[in-house]
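Person: I keep going back and forth on a fold encoding question. Show me how you would write down a chain together with its backbone fold. Please set it down just below, with no commentary around it:
Helper:
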Amino acid sequence: MTWLSRIQSWLEDKPIRADITALAALTLLWCFYFWRVLTPNLIDQVSLPEGDFSSQFLACGAYQAERLLSGEIPLWNPYNYGGHPFLADVQTAVFYPPRLLTIVISHFTGGWNYNAVQIEALAHYWLASVWMYLFIRTMTRSRIAGMVSAIALAYGGYLTGYPPVQLAVLEASSWLPLGLLGIYKASGDISPDTQRGRWHAGWLALSALTLGMSLLAGHPQTNLFLTYALIAYAVHRAARQRIAWKPTVLVVFAMLIIGYGLAAVQLIPGLEYMRLTTRTDMGFDARAGGFPFSDLLSIFVHGLTHWSPLYAGIPVLALAGIAAWRKQESACFWGITALISLGISFGGSTIMYHLAYLTAPGLALFRGQERIAYLIAYSLAIMAGLGAATLRNVPSTERRHSRVLSIAAILSWVLAIELFIARRIYVELDTLSRSVFFVGILVTLTWLVVGRLSTSAKSTWWQLALIGLIIFDLFSNTMNTNWEARPASDRTLYSELVPIALEDDTLYRVDGRLGLGGNFGTMVGLQDIWGVSPLRPKTTQAYGKLPQYRHHQLLAVKYVFTDWQQLEVPSIIRAEAEFQGFLALLHEITDPMPRAWMAYRTMIAPEDSQAWSWLADPSFDPRTTVILISEPELELPDNPPDDWSVEITAYEPEYIALDVDTPTDGILVLSEVDYPGWQATVDGVTVPIWHVDGGLRGLPLEAGQYHIELDYRPLSFTLGVGISIGALLVLLTLVVLQQVKQDAFYLS
C-alpha cells in the first residue's frame, strides 16, 4: 500500500479527521504565506507599508486600547480634527470583537504596536479561508472543493490587494462565507407534508451574527455588498428549495433587523455623524469612479496594476468556467453575481452603475465602485470550488473542457512570443511580456491538471496536484503584494519634534501637517486640528479653507509642524528635524488664542456659509466678536470690559469644567467643535449650547460668576446600546431554540 493510499484509507475511515486535516493544512498554508511577517528574524521580516494602515488604524487603535483598558468607552476624541466623535467614526471599530481580542492579547504581550495590528489583519485571512472551507464543504460535501475555494479566496488578488492596508475593508469582507453557510443550512429542510422547502429560523442566527460582525468591523460599503449578497442568496435558495415567498421575506427581514441591530451601538452614532461630514456633499460624479476598462486584463495577468484585485488565478478561472458550463448547483447564481458586480465596478463608465445608483438602496452613499471587486472575488472562489466538485463526477467521455484549455494554452504562448519579440522595439512591454510568459506556463499546467489528468479526479494524487497548482499560481503572484522588506519595529511614524511639543503641559492644540500628520495626534496625545479619517467633519473642511492664521486662532493652535521658515503671525522656532526627506520645523506661536474666552460684540449669520465668509475677513477679530445664528436676549455693553476671567478647571475627552467671571452680559466662546450630544450645565442648571463662529460652542451668560460643566452624552449611543442589547437577546433566543429543535421553529 502506497503512502497516498494509506492517507486516503485513513481519511475515509474517519471523515472528521479529513476535515481536521484540511483545516490544519489551511493553517499551515497561512503560516507559509505570511512566514516573513511571522518570523522573529529581523533580517527576513517584512511589514505592511505606512499610510492608512498606520496613520488611521494603528493610531486610532492605540487610543481605543488605552481608553478601553482604563474601563472607559471612547466616545469623543479630542486629538484630531480639533475634536470629533470617535465611536461614531465607524472605521474605529470600537466594539468589533476581534479588535477587542487584539487589544487584550497585546496588553499582555508588549502593548499595542504595529505588529499587533498586522497580526489582527493576518488572522482575518485565516478566518476567511476557514469560513469558506466550511461553506463549500457543507454545500458540495467535497473537501477538495472546500480547499480550492478557501485558497482561491484568501490568497487571490482581491484580499491580498488593498484590503490589508485598508484594514476595515479586509475585516468587514471576511465574514461573507459564514453568512452564506447560515442561509444554506437554514434552507436545507424539506417539509414532509408539502414536500417543499422550509426555513429553519435557528440557523439564521448565524447569518444575522455575520451581518453584525461585518458592520462592527467598520467599512459600511463592504458591508452593503455583503448585505446584498446575503439577501440575493436567500432568494436564490428559496427559489431552489421551492420555499414560499412570504416566509422568505420574513426571514430576510428578520436577518437584517437582528444583524443591523447587533451593530446599532456603532451604527446609530455613525449615521448621526455621517450627515455632518463632507460625504453628504458628494454628487454622482464624485461617487462614480471605478476600474478603467484596461483593468479587465488583470483578470488574466497579475501585476498590470498596483494591486490586481480582479486576479483570481488561471486554474481558478478554469474551474469556475467548468462549474458554469456544467450548471453545477448555484454556479449560475454566482456567475450572474460576478458579471453584475463587474459591470458596476467600472463606475459611471457603464449604464449598470447608473441603474444601481438610482435603484439600489445605499449604493449612492459611497465612492470607489471598484471595491465591488469584493463580490467578484468571492463569486469566482465559490465557483472554483463547485468546478472542482464537478470534475469528480464528469465522465471521461465528456471532458470537452480539456480541448478548450489546450486552445487557451496555445493562444497564450503565441501572445507571449509576440510580446517577447515586440519588447525589443517597445521597452515598456518588458514587464507585460514576462507576465504573459508566466501566464502561458500557468495555462499549460492548468490544461495538464484540470484538463488531461482530470480523468483521475477522484484520486488523492490528482487532488494534491490541483491544490498545488493553485498554490503555485496565487502564492507566486500575490505573496509579495503590499509587503515591504522592513521590520514592523523599524517603522518611524512621526518626527522627533513630537516629544518637544509634548513637554508643554498647558492646554493647547497643534497644526501637525508635517512632522506629526495622519491621526498620530490621537496616538501620542497631541490635540491636532487635522486628521485622515475618510469621514471628515464639515466644520474641519470649512475651517481648513480659511486663512491659516484664522484657522489657528479659532482652534487655539500653539504649535505648528511645518517646513515654513516664517508663519503669518509672530512665532519662534523651537526645534527642527529631518523627516521623510523634509526639514520639519516646530513653531511656537507667541500669542495663541485661549481655549475659552468671553466676547461682547456679536454678528448675526443664520447660515454657516455667511459666518465662514466673515471669518475669512482680516478685519474680523474673534477675540472680541462672536458670530451667532440669531440675536441674543442679553444686554451687551457698548464698551466691552477686559476684566473678565475664564479658567478651565478640568479637561477630559468627554468632560470639561470651567469657572467664569464676567462683569457684564456676554457670550462664552469655547474653542471646541459644536456637535450633537454635548450637554452644558451652568451652576447645575442645564442650558442649551449655542452654535457660534460657524462651528464652535458658545454659552450666553449674564453678569456674574459661574461654574460650568460640559458632558458628552449622545442620545444616539444610548439608543444604540439598547437596540444592540435587544438584538443580542433575540439572537441568543434563536440559538437556544436551535439547540432544543422545536418543530414550531420552522417557517414554511
